[in-house]
Write a structure and sequence with these properties.
Blueprint (H helix, E strand, L loop, with lengths): L25 H59 L5 H11 L3 H16 L3 H14 L6 H14 L3 H12 L6 H17 L3 H12 L5 H39 L4 E3 L5 E6 L11 E10 L4 E4 H4 L3 E4 L5 H7 L7 E6 L19 E11 L41 H12 L1
Helix pairs in contact: 1-2, 2-3, 3-4, 4-5, 5-6, 6-7, 7-8, 7-9
């Protein structure tokens, strides 16, 4: 316990005599400050200069590296741009670029080379380039397009099964863009229709129906189906019409009053005529009513209320033949096979290879207009017109007998006669 008695000696207070507290004296502090401000700089400046030199060198190296990278990138872009400009060597330039740059832009170059090969019809070569492009474009939005190009090129190069398999992979690959998956499904649906694979078509239709964003592809697929159906019907229509026409004509041929010509034209005389028969060069006036074998009317002058006029030799073969057998005033019913009508091309509402039925009434023959007889300019040359000079009438007395059509010779004869 420490005593507060002032009479106690210092050692009794716990402090040794002549000892000073720990720490630096004022003189020592002054010396330290002088050392810190001057000597520290002298000792550390060389180190500082070395550090700054290292930093400067690092900056220089980094700048040189960046400059080289920029130069390399500029050269890379120029090469790609030159290939993009086209020309006869565009494909070779793209392939050369793709060999030197194994990155996404190199994949784009492969894609462009593949597209050129496809346009040239080199489908096997295009398939190879599209495949390489798809590999290099991993994770790129263009990858799906490259895979579709690869699949279509395989199909075009007679490797249909492989191509269809690749399209199926694209349609189910969730890592690809939706538009690429939808297009693959659309193409699979088109192929199914072409192959008459109803189940395959329905599968792709259902897949597209389940995606709201695939509505446009679904609409395209359904429109293609509609057009394909019409096309299939149009291909079979000529054969169907020909068979129906033959059956119809066979029934008419068995009727009692129906006659047949050597060409196969069938006709029935409804009313006999007593007038002249036209020739192929004559123009005739007729009333007619034309129907298909179904009874549908496709043309009728009677319905229009006005007869038709035309040259006999400028209509279908069945008409030309029948009209030359008819007398003016006659009315016939014609059963015309398709080869004597519009054949496999049809006409308007008349389908290909359709047999036709007409009721024809020959009203009259229009006589041809006589052609005016023109002079033969090679036999004689026309005389040039001569216009006499007008004589002065001074000193002459008009008698009233002269006309403005008198020629000079007529005037002289009149003067001689008057002098006599």
């Amino acid at each position: 316990m420490v005593s507060n008695d002032p009479n106690n000696k210092p050692e009794e207070n716990g402090l040794p005599e002549n000892d000073e507290p720990d720490g630096l004296s004022a003189d020592q502090v002054a010396e330290v400050r002088a050392y810190d401000e001057v000597e520290a700089w002298k000792k550390s400046k060389n180190t500082l200069y070395s550090v700054l030199g290292v930093i400067a060198l690092a900056v220089a190296v980094s700048s040189f590296y960046n400059s080289s990278k920029e130069s390399e990138l500029a050269e890379k872009n120029i090469r790609f741009l030159n290939a993009t400009m086209g020309g006869v060597s565009a494909k070779e330039q793209f392939l050369s670029f793709a060999e030197d740059y194994d990155d996404a832009l190199g994949g784009v170059a492969q894609y462009r080379a593949a597209a050129i090969s496809y346009d040239e019809g080199n489908f096997s070569e295009a398939a190879e380039h599209f495949l390489i492009a798809a590999t290099q474009l991993q994770g790129d939005p263009l990858q799906g397009r490259a895979k579709i190009g690869h699949a279509i090129s395989l199909i075009k190069s007679d490797k249909r099964e492989q191509g269809i398999a690749k399209l199926s992979q694209v349609s189910s690959d969730s890592s690809l863009l939706g538009v690429d998956r939808y297009e693959a499904a659309y193409l699979l649906g088109v192929d199914a229709l072409s192959s008459k694979d109803e189940a395959g078509f329905e599968k792709q239709r259902a897949a597209l129906s389940g995606e709201d964003s695939a509505a446009s592809y679904l609409a395209r697929l359904m429109e293609y189906k509609r057009l394909n159906t019409l096309y299939e019907q149009s291909k079979s229509l000529p054969e169907v019409n020909l068979a129906k026409g033959a059956e119809y004509l066979s029934k008419q041929r068995k009727r009692k009053n129906v006659k047949e010509t050597e060409t196969g034209l069938l006709y029935e005389v409804l009313t006999k005529g007593d007038g002249a028969k036209p020739t192929a060069e004559d123009e005739v006036e007729v009333h007619y009513h034309g129907t298909l074998i179904t009874g549908d009317v496709f043309d009728s002058s009677k319905d229009r209320g006005e007869p038709a006029k035309f040259r006999v030799g400028q209509v279908i073969k069945g008409w030309t033949e029948a009209l030359q057998l008819m007398n003016v005033g006659a009315k016939w019913k014609l059963f015309i096979p398709s080869d004597l009508a519009y054949g496999n091309r049809g006409s308007g509402s008349i389908g290909p290879n359709e047999a036709l039925t007409f009721e024809v009434e020959l009203l009259g023959i229009t006589p041809p207009l006589p052609e005016p007889e023109l002079p033969d300019l090679n036999e004689s040359e026309p005389r040039p017109a001569v216009f006499p000079a007008k004589k002065s009438s001074a000193g002459k007395k008009k008698t009233g007998k002269e006309t403005s059509l008198d020629t000079p010779a007529d005037s002289q004869d009149k003067e001689k006669n008057s002098s006599k």
